[in-house]
Amino acid sequence: MNITSEKPSKAQSSLELLVTMSFGLAILLPIIIIAFIQISNTNTSLYAVESQQAASKLSNVATLVGSEGPPAMQLVQVNVPPGVLDIFVGNTVNGVGHEIIFKIVSPANSSDIVTYTPVNVSGNLGGLSSQGTYLINVSAQSQCPSDPGLSCVYMRPVV
Question: Does the pLDDT of residue 94 top 80, yes or no?
Answer without folding.
Answer: no
